[in-house]
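We modelled each protein-ligand pair independently. The example shown here corresponds to the magnesium ion entry; the chain sequence is given first, followed by the ligand as SMILES.
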Amino acid sequence: MNVLLISPGYPADMPEFTRGLAESGANVIGIGDQGKGALPELVQKFLSHYVEVPSLWKTSDVISALHAQLRGISLDRIECLWEPGIMLAAELRAHFGVPGLTVEQAHRFRDKEAMKVAIDAAGIRTPRHISVDTVAGCWDAALEIGFPVILKPIAGAGSSDTYRVNNEDEMRMALPLLRHVNTVSVEEFVDGEEYTYDTITVGGKISYFNVAWYRPRPLIARSNEWISPQVIALRDVDQANLVDGIKMGQQVIDALGLDTGFTHMEWYRKADGEVVFGEIGARPPGAHQVDQMKYACDFDVFRAWGQAIAQGKMEMEIERLYNVAIIFKRARGVGRIQRIEGMEALQQRFGEHVVWETLLRPGMQRRDWLKTLVSDGFVMLRHPDLQQTLDMADAVGTGLNLYAG
Ligand SMILES: Nc1ncnc2c1ncn2[C@@H]1O[C@H](COP(=O)(O)OP(=O)(O)O)[C@@H](O)[C@H]1O
Ligand SMILES: [Mg+2]
């Protein structure tokens, strides 16, 4: 089984996927724009071949490079776990006659308007949405839908260029900020809690799923620097407030026709219990949510995905043992980290529940909080009991502080 993996070295959690795939019996061929020597060690160790290209964004050049270098090797699967490469993977599949998401299907995972049209057609509740490419169109759409609305790019990521607009004055302020975005999706603003529904799907059947809860919603976390955003992988997925979202998630995967691979969906639950679709990607979530899955069930999630791809089945007993919280910290001030306060006290209180900690240390340059989801580092912790998990996460949110200057 020869599997072509696009960009095996980037972003940060790709190395483990390369390992998981190779350990599941696949011959993993990488293709990317990094030099071979610059690939993470784990990737180098588990790749059987690497095709280096100057850029991944000209499909015809990528195809030529593959023809030149893969003489005699046929490809059985072409995989990409990274949002910008989803269309490339589909185009390569079409060219090489390899099964998996087609160009048409992949487009529905990339273009948020096409996505919602397909999901509407399946009778699933989406926010009211109108896609526009002029300022006048934005006004018409907002007035038709009614304030508050969300304005966002149809192919955005990480809440970039996304605005909640409550009235006409705010609309006048937001529109100039979106001038560089070609097509804008104007949506009904859905108030509520926000969750994920992520799966490893095998042959159209969901073999594993995870539900995580964003505290607070990503747009709020992204708009307020003082917040320490949390994502909680939930242990009890049978709780009443998740049932409808999980059911919707299964319907969405059926509607979009995914065969085998990772999916990452976001959905909203309103105060009255109604669930509303947010978005879905044909890839795993970022910002270490896959590592949260690993710590929630103490299983090799990367190898589980590898089995799904290489063997068309997933042979693991998976038991949800813990809730896993990740808390991203943003330093106060700019420049280099000067000191960290509160670490010892928290370590003493519940250090045994911390599974990972990556806070920047004094002397290191702090990051641009708008450009990185991992902020100035994070703490990941777990506990079988949800309330205790939330209490510890909140204590990290308020009691641990990094200062830069
Ligand atoms: N229709 C909506 N109603 C309420 N909040 C929304 C809506 N659309 C987006 N948001 C907020 O903006 C965030 C980013 O939007 P999303 O569609 O997930 O795009 P991406 O994550 O790709 O940037 C969401 O997580 C949510 O907090
Ligand atoms: Mg999102």
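The chain is about 35% helix and 25% strand.
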